[in-house]
Write a structure and sequence with these properties.
Number of helices: 16
Largest sheet: 8 strands, mixed
Radius of gyration: 21 Å
Strand order of the largest sheet: 4-3-2-5-1-6-7-8
Strand content: 15-25%
CATH architecture of the largest domain: 3-Layer(aba) Sandwich
Oligomer: single chain
Number of domains: 2
Structural class: alpha/beta
Length: about 425
C-alpha cells in the first residue's frame, strides 16, 4: 500500500460517522492552515443531485481547449482517490497528495473531522499553492453544510437537476433537499439554473432574488430547441448556435452539455470561441456515465454476443434516464447488474426498470456499507408482480459467468452506485488519465 493510501486510511478514523454535515470543524482546520480557501483562483461551484460530474467534465473540457489552466475538485473517485483533485488538468501525484494530507493531519491534531472535510482542506491547500486561471468545485452530497461551501465569492454557481437523494441527511421532501442544496448560493453572484421541477425553480428564484443574483434559467434564458442526428440547436438570449452532439451517451448528456455552455456564456471573465466550445462538447469523456465497456477485460470475458454498459446512476431521477435508454434497447435481452450502498432505495430505483428486464443480478460493494443482495432480492418478490430471474453474485466477474450461462445474447447494464462502477472499471483494467 502506497503512503497516500495509508494516510487516507488513518484519516477515515478521525470521525466515527462517514457523513456529519457541518462547516465548523473544517473552518477551524482551514484557519490553522492559513485559510487557503480564500486564496484560490476564481471558482465555479457545481451543486445539484444528478449531472454534476458530467457538467464539470464538459466545463473542464471547454476551458482546457481554450488554453486556460484549470484545477478541479470532484467526488467520489472511481479507481484512485487522486482522481478527486486535478491541478491544471493533471491528477494530483502521490507524493504531493501525501505531503498535503500529512500537513492537514498534523495541524488537525487528532480532533474529530470527517474524511470528506479533511480531504477537502487538502484540496484547497493544493489549489492555493498552484497557480491556475480557474477552479471547478463539485459539491459532495449537500450544499449548505457541504465541506466545499466555505468558498466565498464564486464566479457563478450551477444547479444541475435536484431530485430525491440522500434523504437520511438532507430531508425526506423535495423542498427540504432543495433548500439544503441551494445553500451554496452566495450574494451578488451568478446562478445557472438547469431544468428543474417547478417547486425547485420557485425556491431557487426566491433565494436568488434575496441574494441579488443574476439568474440564467433553462427554458427562459437558454434552452435546447432542436436535437438532430449529429448536432443540437442551443439558444442563448434569443441567439441560436449549433453544436455537435456529445460523445457521452444519452439525451440527458445534451442537457448537461447545454448547462455547461450556458455557464460559459453567462460570465464575462473568460471569453471562449464558439468553435472551441463545439470541439470540447464533442470530445468530452467521463467514465461510468453510460459508458460502453467495449475493449477491456470484461468484454473479452463475456464475448461478442453481449454489450456491456456502465453507469453510476443510483437514484430515482437516474432510473428515469436509464428507463428511456432501455426503451431503445427493446430488441435485445436486457440484463441489469445492480449494487447499492445503504441509504439508497433499490425498490423505487427498479420501479421503471423491472418490467423491461430479462435477468437481474445483485452484487455487494467492497469496502462500503451496502444493502445485502438477498435483502434486495427478497423485497423484489414482495413488491413486484412480474416474475423475473433474480440472482445474487459475489462480484462482476462471477455475474458475467452467470450471464453467459443464462442468456445467449443481449445488453448488460451495470449500475446502482459509483463505488460499484469504480470496482467494475478496476476489473475491466481501466486506467484513469
Amino acid at each position: 500500500m502506497d503512503k497516500s493510501k495509508k494516510i487516507l486510511k488513518r484519516l477515515e478514523l478521525l470521525h466515527p460517522k462517514k457523513i456529519d454535515l457541518s462547516l465548523n470543524r473544517l473552518k477551524k482546520l482551514l484557519k490553522k492552515l492559513g485559510d487557503p480557501h480564500i486564496k484560490i483562483p476564481p471558482t465555479i461551484h457545481i451543486a445539484g443531485t444528478n449531472g454534476k460530474g458530467s457538467v464539470t467534465s464538459f466545463l473542464r473540457s471547454i476551458f482546457e481547449n481554450a488554453k486556460y489552466n484549470v484545477h478541479t475538485y470532484t467526488s467520489p473517485h472511481l479507481v484512485r482517490f487522486n482522481e478527486r483533485i486535478r491541478l491544471n488538468s493533471k491528477i494530483i501525484k502521490n507524493n504531493l497528495l501525501s505531503s498535503l494530507l500529512e500537513e492537514c493531519e498534523d495541524l488537525n491534531n487528532g480532533e474529530e473531522i470527517t474524511f470528506f472535510e479533511i480531504t477537502t482542506a487538502a484540496a484547497f491547500l493544493a489549489f492555493s499553492r498552484n497557480k491556475s486561471d480557474l477552479v471547478l468545485i463539485e459539491t459532495g452530497l449537500g450544499g449548505r453544510f457541504d465541506a466545499t461551501n466555505v468558498i466565498e465569492n464564486p464566479l457563478c454557481c450551477i444547479f444541475t437537476p435536484i431530485s430525491m437523494d440522500h434523504m437520511n441527511f438532507l430531508g425526506t421532501t423535495l423542498k427540504s433537499i432543495a433548500n439544503e442544496k441551494l445553500g451554496v448560493m452566495k450574494k451578488n453572484s451568478i446562478t445557472i439554473l438547469a431544468r428543474q421541477k417547478n417547486l425547485v425553480k420557485k425556491l431557487i428564484r426566491k433565494e436568488a432574488q434575496m441574494k441579488s443574483n443574476l439568474v440564467f434559467e433553462e427554458g427562459k434564458d437558454w434552452k435546447v430547441t432542436n436535437i438532430k442526428k449529429n448536432s443540437f440547436i442551443f439558444q442563448f438570449k434569443n441567439k441560436e448556435y449549433e453544436f455537435s452532439r456529445p460523445s457521452l451517451y444519452g439525451h440527458h448528456q445534451i442537457e448537461n452539455a447545454s448547462t455547461a455552455i450556458a455557464s460559459v456564456m453567462s460570465q464575462k471573465k473568460f471569453k471562449i470561441q464558439e468553435r472551441l466550445i463545439n470541439k470540447s462538447i464533442r470530445n468530452t469523456s467521463w467514465p461510468a456515465r453510460m459508458q460502453n465497456l467495449n475493449s477491456g477485460k470484461l468484454k473479452k470475458k463475456i464475448g461478442n454476443n453481449f454489450e456491456i454498459w456502465l453507469d453510476g446512476g443510483h437514484n430515482i431521477h437516474a432510473s428515469e434516464i436509464i428507463s428511456e435508454i432501455l426503451d431503445n434497447w427493446n430488441d435485445e435481452s436486457l440484463i441489469l447488474v445492480l449494487g447499492m450502498v445503504k441509504g439508497k432505495d433499490p425498490i423505487n430505483f427498479l420501479k421503471k426498470l423491472i418490467n423491461k428486464l430479462n435477468l437481474l443480478i445483485i452484487l455487494p460493494i467492497d469496502d462500503h456499507q451496502y444493502i445485502q443482495p438477498y435483502e434486495i432480492k427478497n423485497n423484489i418478490s414482495k413488491f413486484f408482480k412480474k416474475k423475473i430471474d433474480v440472482y445474487c453474485c459475489l462480484n462482476v466477474d462471477e455475474a458475467i459467468e452467470l450471464i453467459k450461462k443464462k442468456v445467449f445474447r443481449g445488453k448488460v447494464l451495470i449500475c446502482g452506485s459509483l463505488y460499484l462502477a469504480g470496482q467494475t472499471l478496476e476489473s475491466d483494467g481501466y486506467k484513469v488519465l
